[in-house]
Write a structure and sequence with these properties.
EC 2.5.1.18 (chain B), glutathione transferase activity (chain B), alpha+beta, homodimer, four-stranded mixed beta sheet, about 260 residues
């Protein structure tokens, strides 16, 4: 029997683009490294409030940088991420409370669906590509950068960025992820219960206790020590701490698995 | 004859710990990748003012994170970087005007010394392992006399403004000129992305060829 897998906790919010990048990299490496990845849906608004921080996008030069950075990382990470047209409205006004409560309820009732539904919610806010097609392509960008748009079955959604605040929107995301209508509605009914609201609050507070001032944070438990790493750009350092090999954001074994 | 080296500009301030990390990584790779590294001493205080940003260390939880991050990156990057005891005093009160003017004067008069002296200044602020940079007393005196001339003050101002025009809200920034495009990358954690943009191989912050050269 080999050594025990190292526990990694990823605290994330679907409003956070860099959370999506961390999420995909860790999902790719969870079958390569000796790790156990635990997804922790959190509320970035709560972390900002608790830490006294502000969303970087509120500073004009940071907002400008974010757009460029995401454009480049899209290529490098092979994740179809794009800034929504009405970015300020989506991120700063509408928020993610219902979506993150839904994911919290899922984590309690159907944790095996948490990865797929999280991905589908990110896709709604941060992408124009359908998750199903992206998954079947091996979750790289290749097909979507080169294929022409067929007239009948558009790979790129013609409509603008999708909502995640309305119940119907969340149900649509859950169904696209493979849940049945009954399962999805069952979860939706629970999102305003004290149990779910408290769990989301506790997870967000746990992130704060680890020292979070934003998201994503990856917490690695290694040889009796706990390391909190902020951002999607500490993955190589994470590999170093785990004693694992870093093969970039698109590791070869990911492609080989398909 | 091979392809022309790609021009990289590193805008930095010795007050900035992450600038030291970027600096060392790019110095290591300048003899591995097909690049021409141009060091651009800048004033981080000027960039903060111009962009409306604030030093991250002013937010308690970020200050706490910075300390831990630097501790880990010290190992990973193999750079003897440590938070100074009197961090707030050093960084936020004393500032770096003289040091950056000194480096600006060097960039005009003795550019070949810029790398070593920059490193020496970082060592003084951010390490307990200061080494001598090999500059003669006369050279140092000569440079010191020049740091408050209009020429030097203006050059530092212009370099800082150039960083702002590239979109800087902090330091370090690495500006890569590749195939007619200009990319500005913030932080010491975009080096792998830089390699990707240059079409070069990323071998981590401590590339093997660096060891081979010694």
């Amino acid at each position: 029997m080999g050594p025990l897998p190292r526990s990694l906790e990823l605290f994330y919010d679907v409003l956070s683009p860099y959370s999506w990048l961390s999420f995909e990299v860790l999902c790719r490496y969870q079958n390569i490294w000796n790790i156990k990845l635990q997804l922790r849906p959190s509320l970035i608004a709560g972390i900002m409030k608790d830490s006294g921080n502000k969303p970087p996008a509120l500073l004009p030069r940071k907002a400008q940088y974010l757009r460029q950075d995401i454009k480049l990382l899209r290529q490098h990470f092979q994740i179809p991420i794009q800034f929504p047209k009405d970015f300020i409205s989506v991120i700063l006004e509408k928020g993610s409370m219902s979506a993150m409560r839904f994911l919290t309820a899922l984590s309690l009732e159907h944790p095996e669906m948490l990865e797929k539904v999280s991905r589908e919610l990110w896709m709604r806010v941060w992408s124009r590509v359908r998750a199903g097609l992206w998954e079947s392509s091996g979750r790289t960008l290749g097909d979507f950068l080169t294929l022409p748009r067929p007239p009948s079955r558009a790979i790129i959604l013609p409509s603008p960025d999708e909502d995640i605040t309305e119940p119907q929107s969340i149900l649509a995301a859950a169904e696209k992820a493979g849940m049945t209508i009954e399962q999805a509605q069952g979860i939706l009914e629970k999102i305003s219960t004290p149990k779910v609201r408290n769990q989301l609050k506790e997870t967000t507070e746990a992130a704060c206790r680890y020292g979070a001032f934003g998201l994503p944070i990856t917490v690695a438990h290694v040889d009796g020590q706990t390391h909190m790493l902020f951002g999607s750009d500490r993955m190589e350092l994470l590999a170093y701490l785990l004693g694992e090999k870093w093969m970039g954001p698109v590791p070869p074994a990911m492609n080989a698995r398909l």
